[in-house]
From TrEMBL:
It holds the Pfam family HTH_1. Residues 7-64 form the HTH lysR-type domain. Gene3D superfamilies: 3.40.190.290, Winged helix-like DNA-binding domain superfamily/Winged helix DNA-binding domain (1.10.10.10). Transcriptional regulator of the ttuABCDE tartrate utilization operon. It comes from the Bacteria. This is HTH-type transcriptional regulator TtuA. Belongs to the LysR transcriptional regulatory family. One of its GO terms (molecular function) is sequence-specific DNA binding. One of its GO terms (biological process) is DNA-templated transcription.
Amino acid sequence: MKSTQSPDLNSLRIFLEVARTESFSSAAHRLHLPPSTVSRRLLELETVLGTAVLLRSTRRVSLTEAGRQLLDSISGALETVERGIANFRPVDGAVRGRLRVATSFSFGRVFLPSILARYAELCPEVQVDVQTTHQNIDLIGESVDVALRMGQPADSDMIYRKIGIVEQRLYAAPAFCSGLALSGPEDLRDVALVAHRTRMRRELVHWTLSNGTRHFTVEQPPAIVVDDPILVEGLLSQGLGIGLLSDVLAADGVATGQLVPVLPGWSGPPVPLYYLYHQQLGDLPKVAEFLKATRETLRTKSARPDAETITT
């Protein structure tokens, strides 16, 4: 009598192997199972199907008509399942799959090329999908594996680790500075400022500067407000004002002579660098290797290395 149960996937896998090898012992060896388990699971399968699928003798095993129909029906589907599982547990140990990374434009420009170059050495068969935005996105809702950010994260149910610190200073184009006489941040009062929106408060620039012994807060309307530090860098290079930039983002402009430090004895508050990931993803090889590549890269870049793992 046919059972109302559905056939077990493992039993179907055992049946497929017996049908291929025409031998209980050979199938058991290939599946790393005791022969008694193979025999028992096939009897359970026949009970569920309500018909015999194998003809057993002392010398060989052959398929019944129902067994041949079952083999034709399931062999392709089971092979597809096996290939899919192999992508997660490859027998050769290689890490494969797709890694989704979210980061800001500025972090991406400064750090991501070096991180991805190192990651390509560690996991050459992983496809990387990078999403760049200046907004903090929902990692779970957007199916993102890892986020790389500047500033304090606000995500809940995430693991985040501080992996570095970047210093901030005032920068401008040499031509813009040529007619200025600046002895301290108080002298910025009548100077055109280019501001990143997150460094503002109530429509005013809000820059807290320090020279090690004294603090001063610059608060005044900016000439230009933008949403991303990369644009601040470009506008400063064109001589449109003075802005607060991270040293690593300003480094290329300084090297080419397009930017110079302004009031070099004063600096803004250090900006922490973080990576974030869901606690259930940290053990995935593709994620673990990316975190490793990120840590290694930050040690060699000009960001000051740091380490602090926190569960929010």
